[in-house]
Amino acid sequence: MRITKASTIIEAKHLTFTRNDEEVLHDFSFAIHEGDYVGVIGPNGGGKTTLLRLLLGLEKPTSGGIKILGGSPIKWTVRQQIGYVAQRGGSLDNQFPATVEEVVKAGRTPRLGWLGVWRKTDTCAVDKAMKEMNIEKLRERPMSRLSGGERQKVMLARAMAAEPKILFLDEPVDGLDPQSREDFYKLLRSINKRGVTIIFVSHDVHAISREAGSALCLKHQLVCHGNKSCHIQGTQLRDLFHETHENLVHHHAT
Amino acid sequence: MLNSIIEVLSLGFMQRALVVGLMVGLVAPTIGIFFVVRRYSSLADTLAHISLAGVAASLLLGVAAIPAALVVSVASVLGMEQLREKKILAADTITPLFLFGGLATGVVLLGLAHGHNVNILNYLFGNILTVTSADAVNIIIIGSVTLLITCLCWRQLFAISLDEDTARAAGLPVGLLNRVLAVLGAATIAIALNVVGVLLIGALMVIPVLAAMQFKVGFTRTWLMAVVISLLSVKIGLLASYFLDLASGGTIVLVNIGFFLLSTLCAKIVKN
To answer: How many CB pairs under 8 A join A and B?
Structure first.
């Protein structure tokens, strides 16, 4: 059996980002391959969310460059292939008047073009995303009447409605109860199995250790990027978090 | 009573007032819903005050007030967006600067236009019964174009209202859509000048939406309910102002507030 090496889907070179004269990220490079499941970990204020925003093209690096699917993150054709789930459902207010279906459909909007004509394929993509997240029964329910776990499933369905090749998530399970977390991770595993590359930011060492295929550990600079195998020692974690954690071990299929 | 209403509605100025009122009643919550969910309500007030400068300029130059208010509001709102985007000034500095700047310019220009037989109260508080045929034509044209553009951009405007970062990351032109929404807001304010006046325009855009939001339904249903509330408010307010000899703008807004209170009560009953 011939094994082909997965192609590079995200490439960052000598990435540096400065905000208000303070260096948030300092000169680091990494590559992520197609189908990878990468956990981005680090302490609060260590630059995790900034890195995600740089990869999404929401911030511009001070120096260095990023290539996603061979192009700039701000290129329209690149953005069409990206899904994003923001922390705690983004800035969506609890009073925002929207049903689950309306929110999921909004994820499909960038694919519609300027006249915004809704086609049969769009309905299929939305239905498929809702079915996968098991939220079909919630279709007509207002967002304000959802639990935290249901809300995050809707946000994931919104991202998946665009049928992305890469899915970015910023602390997606923050504030959820253990069962909702487990359900959410299960969904991410099944999405990744279909070949979607996943990059998720978390400060939960155990979740990254258990769920992600590789870890990108940062604290203003790249501490460790586990590609084939990544073994972060307790001392490094202490350095990252200023507290004791168990070792973070990744075992990968060779 | 019914005969009296039919008789009143056969009057030319009342028919004009009704047509104009219903157009504004349709456009105001349609744009207002995006302003409310995005917490842009203060922008509506700012634009209303800026439009006064446009009205004053029109009186000095001897041109129609509504197109002049539209031009000044659109130019100002695009300037505000530019300043905000380029971070030349802090966001919370730009709004009061334009609000008071617009109002002050309006007051100065109105002072200069003192000899032009100006009834400033009509522009401050509105008087829908004084709408001319030319005003009605301007309102219908600007209102129809505003509705058409909103209809075309509805899904995109909804997506950026949910979450700007997610929409931008997915490839929507958020900056452009923000400008489109601001211009649509400016157009709404320009056509509502005669109906409720500069000081109450924000109410027409916001209160019907807040009333509909009490029922906690989806976005499209909230919009539909807001439009119904707004149209009923205009019609009831207009007739009440005629029969009771009240100021039309204030009466329409008070009816709107009545609907808001009724909606809050109904929503609580439904919930229980």
So the answer is: 103
The SS3 of residue A230 is: strand
Show the domain range for B205. Answer: 2-271
CATH number of A1-81+165-254: 3.40.50.300
DSSP letter at A4 equals P
Question: Exposed e or buried b for every residue in B240-253, given b needs 16+ CB within 10 A?
Answer: bbbeeeebbbbbbb
Provide φ and ψ at A173, rounded to 5°: -105, 10
Instruction: Domain count for chain B, please give it.
Output: 1
Tens of pLDDT along B128-156?
Answer: 888 888 889 999 999 999 999 999 999 99
Asked whether the ipTM of the predicted complex exceeds the cut of 0.85, the reply is yes
Any CB–CB contact under 8 A between B38 and chain A?
Answer: no
> What are the two backbone dihedrals, phi and then psi, of residue A26, each rounded to the nearest 5 degrees?
-120, 120
Contact B169 A103 (CB under 8 A): no
CA proximity to B163, closest of A192, A64, A143, A200 = A143
Domain chopping of chain A, boundaries: 1-81+165-254, 91-164
Whole-model pTM: value is: 0.88
Which chain B residues touch A79 with a CB distance below 8 Å? 169-171
Nearest to A49 by CA among A238, A203, A208: A203
Which residues of B fall within a CB distance of 8 Å from A98? 158, 162, 218-219
Which residue of B lies nearest to A170 if distances are taken between CA atoms?
B166
CATH number, domain containing residue B158: 1.10.3470.10
